[in-house]
Amino acid sequence: MPALKINGLSQIFSGISVRSAILAAPPIPCQVGLVHNGSMLIYRFLILLFLLTCNLVSAAESDPILDTAERHARLQAQGLPGKINIRPGKIDASRLPPCTAFEAYTPPGARMMGKTSVGVRCLGPNIWNVLVPVEISVTGTYVTTARSILAGHTIQASDLHVLSGDVSSLPTGIIADPASAIGKTLRNSLAAGQLLRSDQLVSPTVIRQGQTVRVVSIGSGFSVSAEGKAISNAADGQIVQVRMNSGQTISGVARPDGSVEISN
Fold first, then answer.
1. Is the pTM of this model over 0.70?
2. Helical (H) or strand (E) element with 73
């Protein structure tokens, strides 16, 4: 076997000893390096995705046009019964001139429930107008008939079912509280399972034409009453005319006890 001289020293390596040295050497951590590099790439990608999402959300939240439209929709929906959720749509405002003052309004004929639109106009320094799509969903209760009911029937609790769900797509005037329907008369016949609306109900007549009624005038610290005759029928809360014993005709509001209240 030839001799190998390194720095004046003679060392002899056989083929077997070289193979043994290679096999005995610790393995190169290629797999660990690949896993580590892959993890770093995924980690960097997630961070980039998170920052991009945050920027998009911040841009949407800071859009003054959408903010103005959403505030107006929320203000208009305050009186709606139930849980309100407002989602403004998207608009392309890139071509609109700069604006420093915005004003929102409800477009003519628009219903502030369901899929609708809110108008936003610029007051200065440029003048323009844009419609923003808005979806207003309301989760609440509504009343349906528990059975078929004929016209003229006085509504009782057993006639009604109370359901819960999205009421934004239901007709206007739906009854949300059964108490507001009980005791009233049904104007038209309804089948079982139909929605009950306020315009389908008639309050019971509390004053009849020719009836002698007590007319009450209530003020701060005093109450004055007199008698007269009703000129027409009236339900609770309706305006009724009364001819007083003096011959004077006055108008007042019919009350459940059959009296008439006049304002001072």
1. no
2. helix 64-76
